Amino acid sequence: MLDPAAVRAHFPALDPLNHGGAVPLYFDNPAGTQIASEAMSRMQDYLVHRNANHGGASRASRESDAMVHDTRAALADFLGAALPEEISFGQNMTSLTLHVSRCLGAELSPGDEIVLTRLDHDANVSPWLLMAKDRGCTVRWVDFDPGDCTWCADELSRQVTKRTKLVAAGMASNATGTINPVAEAAKIAHDAGALFFVDAVHYAPHGPIDVASIGCDLLACSAYKFFGPHVGVLWGRYALMDRLSAYKVRPAGDTPPDKWETGTQSFESIAGTAGAIEYLEWLGRRFGAVASSAARKEALKAGMEAIRDYEESLSTAMRDGLSSTRGLRIYGITDSGRMDSRAPTYSFTLEGWKPRRICEELDKAGIYASDGNYYAPEVTTRLGLEGAGGMVRVGAAHYNTLAEIERLVESLREIAERRV
After folding, report:
1. Which of 146, 175, 335, 373 could form a disulfide with 380 if both were Cys (CB 3.0 to 4.6 A apart)?
2. Please, what are the averages of pLDDT over each run of 10 residues along the chain (420 residues)?
3. For 313-341, b where at least 16 C-beta lie within 10 A, e where not — what string?
């Protein structure tokens, strides 16, 4: 079991000395986690000692290029990739998905189909809608059950046809916390001869990812959601990424990953991402079920398993506390026997309160939360909440504690007593 004190010592944002003694309660983690000290140190070290552009003759440039390659290797271990060259960097997941969707679209024809789900973040919806519009493709939708905010593989299978060329789905919903059956989805897509794209942004800080086990063709995530800086990460099977034509400037390389990285990268952010992986490796070696001689890949898996196991208690406490608050309605899975099918992310409405006002009241108590649709408008529209300000979202990370959840619930109960 994780030791919260030891974990929190790796996050400067959680040090009372950096807040005048009162640390905010960070429950806006689904919008972006706090950054590990290892990531900060790596960024500072890069900017001081090897801040240079790519491909130069100088020592700093050579060291910068080596750092980028080493970070690719670290992320390959984190995601279960076969090669470091299968990892590409970008400004964020959205930019990378827009880029790769345009490149995939160049191979599609009018009448071809793509399958999307209404449970996804718009970064895994709009890029494909735009591509479909440009290429004259048909979009087929997988609906979700508004009762528990889940979709099933059978529903996906009904939408996939012999004309389907791409299926895109999130590994977990950033709006409701639902963990989706992506391995089953990959098989359905491949049986139809289609590619399968996974948005793993929301899932990445909560459990291990193995692209081989999922069976996907492409997967994207963002380091600022797993304790690093703002940078996007795209994994793609090497043969696919090598075959596809990329929209790029002429001097860029013609093979992965160079052909997929548009313009000068944020090298300091890439260095920081290596620091985030370094932290997760420490976590696995300290708290995971792994031998001291284990390779980094095994240590990372053990670290993410330790996070998942610790967060189970946080998720249960959050569900129980929210469920017992008068007038509060949770959207998503709440059944005790299905908690392994959700991340510790909860969205809710509170009778008599607008979501924004709730977040403002929580902020006064030093508690951070999110409101609105969290860039998942298909979700709030399907739930009939888009025109009413969406929902309030609170999400735990492994540096949160049960005591913090108690404070969150107490504050919400106090708010619930004050109808406005």
Report:
1. 373
2. 96 96 96 98 98 96 98 98 98 98 97 98 98 98 98 97 98 98 98 98 98 98 98 98 95 94 96 98 96 96 98 98 97 97 98 98 98 98 98 98 98 89
3. bbbebbbebbeebebbebbbbeeeeeeeb
Distance, in Å, from the CA atom of 64 to the CA atom of 265, rounded to the nearest integer, reads 11
Q: Are 256 and 344 within one domain?
A: no
Q: Which residues pair with 221 in a beta bridge?
A: 233
One DSSP character per residue, 186-219 reads HHHHHHTT-EEEEE-TTTTTTS---HHHHT-SEE
What whole-number distance in Å separates Cα of residue 400 and Cα of residue 8? 8
Q: In this structure, what CATH number is given to the domain that contains residue 196?
A: 3.40.640.10
**Residue 156: predicted pLDDT:** 98
Same domain, 163 and 305: no
* Residue range(s) defining the domain that contains residue 58: 41-276
- Which residue in 222, 193, 226, 195 sits closest to 208, CA to CA? 226
Residue-level pLDDT at 418: 87
In a domain, 30, yes or no: yes
User: Residue 345: in which H helix or E strand, if any?
Assistant: strand 345-350
Integer CA distances (angstroms), 316 to 69, 96, 336, in order:
40, 34, 8
The residue with tokens 């977990």 is: 172
pLDDT for the residue 420: 54
What CATH number did the domain enclosing 360 receive?
3.90.1150.10
Give the global pTM.
Answer: 0.97
DSSP state, residue 104: H
Domain count, the chain: 2
Helix (H), strand (E) at residue 315: helix 296-323
Helix (H, G, I), strand (E, B) or coil at 336: helix
Phi and psi dihedrals of 132, rounded to 5?
A: -65, -40
Question: Within a domain: residue 287?
Answer: no
Does any domain span residue 304? yes
What token pair was written down for 370? 């999110």
